[in-house]
Amino acid sequence: MTDTLNLGPVRVRYAPSPTGDPHVGNLRTALLNWVFARHAGGQFIVRIEDTDRERMVDGAEERILEALDWLGLDWDEGPGKGGPFAPYVQSERKALDKYGDAARQLIANGHAYECTCTPERLEQLRQRQRAEKKPTGYDGYCRNKSADELAGEKAQGLASVVRFKVPLEGEVVFNDFLRGPLTFDPSLLQDFVILKSDGYPTYHLAHIVDDHEMQITHVLRSEEWISSTPRHVMMYEGFGWEPPEFVHLSILLGPDRSKLSKRHGDTALLEFRDKGFLPGTMFNFLSLLGWSAGDDEEVMTREQVIEKFSLDGLNAAPSIFDITKLEWMNGVYLRQLGVDALAELLLPELEADDGLPASISRPLDKVFVTELVPLIHERLKVIDRTEVSEMLSYFFEDEIELDPAEVVQKGMDEATTASALESAAVRLESAEPFEAESLEQQFRALCEELELKPRQLFGALRVSLTARRVAPPLFDTMVAIGRDRSVDRVRRAAGLLSGTGARA
Predict the structure, then answer these.
(1) Which pTM does this prediction carry?
(2) N or C: which terminus of the chain has fewer CB atoms within 10 Å of its end residue's CB?
């Protein structure tokens, strides 16, 4: 492999079909195209390929552009931007008859023909081929029909498509940047449709016409397109056009090494946004799927990725979409945020209707939320509304729901626990200074006085204050809750134990 930046100005494109929510695999392709363009000082073009009208999904185009925008993948030409080769939506280009003109050009130079075969004939052909245990596919029935014969059939109302005339001999050779020269036998390919009877092009024709007109220099796409590339190369030759450089990217696999799909969990990019992943995290993580900077550094800014990028760093081996690694990386990015920035992210999640309990009044005190951030900073992997609200709700609630049995620690009973908590409440009332480090020293001394292990007293206090066995550092929690509320909660827990007969 050699980097092809010396081929001149780089123009790459991301050309999604609006047939559903943008998949992380598709956005990985967009990202690598974008990074390549920015590294090379070239152009990144967005083109919407909406010629498959039956599979189009309402709102999909908008979500595609939204995903690009969230990742920070700005485009130089495309929807909303325009450009010298507008329009950048294929249905709008079809209205200009760009694809019909191209199909007629191929017919005129002998590389395509009209086909009037009916769906019924094609189905009968498939059934016969299956019965004879032959490969199914078009048999070239209309390949050599005369113009008069075709005109007569069309006059009878038969609809026609345009098929590309695949060479019956020779071989098709093209170079894939990651895999080198690849050779295919064209005789294994049947004459394929390039223009449908409704005038809409198939992908094979549309993207070639558009890539040529838009002067695309490099096509970075999934390796799943390798099997279709011989068709594309033959069509470029049929037009007499120079094909772009082909770079077929590695496929994405789930942790079980099967093709990444919905059964592995979330696969739509915007689902990760909605689950609290940061755009910087997703950019960094996706850039490393199939590419390496050649060093051990994994956490990089987008500026670093752009600077280090090279086509030589791409790898043809499949890439594993590891959600555990993604969560780890998002945690790193969250910890890199300043306290104020993280508080800005947390505040709307906590104030949402499905955030903190409805009993907690809104708006929240931003200063107080900011003070709480250091307590959970290290535990955060994602900005998940439910998880964050669960982590912090007891800081805002006047009263917490307490299970007395949870308060009692191993090796203690209700009586000793209640007595220890009352002693702790007395110590809290008089503790000076009311600061985490000092409180820890004072309560370790109290453990010695009560002949308790720190884990026993501290565990009982933690549950009394938070109603949870796992919470932020105990004494930081005390400070955040405040002296008066801490005393009240500890005394309430002691009272609940005194009034129950539950055993540890």
Answers:
(1) 0.89
(2) C
